[in-house]
Amino acid sequence: MNKNLHRLDLRQLRHFIAVVHTGSFSMAAENLRLTQPALSKSIRSLEQALGVRLLDRGPTGVQVTLFGQRLIGYSELLLSLANEAVDEIDALRGARRGSLRIGSMAAALRQVIPDALIRFSAARPDVALMVHEGTNEVLLPQLFAAKLDVVLTVKPSEILNEDFEWRLVAREPVKIVAHQSHPLAQRKNLSISDLAQYSWVLPPLPETDRLLLESLFRSTGLPKPVVAVETTSINFLTSMISRTHHLAYLTRANLEGSGLGLVALDFNEISLTRDIYAVFRRKGEVRPTVSVLLREIERASGIGATPPAA
């Protein structure tokens, strides 16, 4: 073990992050209710423990050095884990309710996840749930920094960080949809070539379902679907489909919840499903409440996979 590791102090890391976030020793000292000399001494002690300079004061404010930039992520992770540990212990001894911080893409929030959260709350009424919607680009950095406990996503192929593990927890049917007034809406046994005559509203690449749709078109010798609009918003997508003759795909839950006169088209050539994964920090850091949540999601979806060991 590094001989200087025992000299690191969570208070010093908290002081360092406060200066980084405010860009000012004076503002950070005020927020921390410290004097500026006391804050400066704390930062100097941290720099001495690491043997490098972390912050430089300049005419335009505080500048973070290369060493400081590298320390930011680890400091935020350590501070968040420390808060998480205190939260878990307080919940176990009944001092206050625990919490579970969930990040989810919009596609996972319509049906299976709410059902699972209802089950979870019945099993663990002592735990407050906090659900944040976002994209992988927003949620995964928060998971890495321990600001979230688990992320629910449909794109595990994009997750390259070796500190993450993921598990399939739900599988939802995906339907090709159009407005009920669409020329294809009343036809039966449609083929892919029928779909190729119309433009689409689709999420941007490399969204997994879109890649699968394009591969199905190519497998029949057809060019990729013509994209009229790209969007990451389910609300905007359903609104566009309800007002045009564009096509799109939705999970059955999103289709049933749209209320805009959208229908699933009838054909036998395509069978699409959307896989939802739970992404969490490696097994040594999985909280017991995360394991309970994954079990309830699997029960609600019928997947029946075994959750990670706590």
Automatic annotation (TrEMBL):
Pfam families: HTH_1 (PF00126), LysR_substrate (PF03466). PROSITE patterns: HTH_LYSR. Residues 8-65 form the HTH lysR-type domain. GO terms for cellular component: cytosol. Keywords: DNA-binding, Plasmid, Transcription, Transcription regulation. One of its GO terms (molecular function) is DNA-binding transcription factor activity. Belongs to the LysR transcriptional regulatory family. Transcriptional regulator of the ttuABCDE tartrate utilization operon. This is HTH-type transcriptional regulator TtuA.
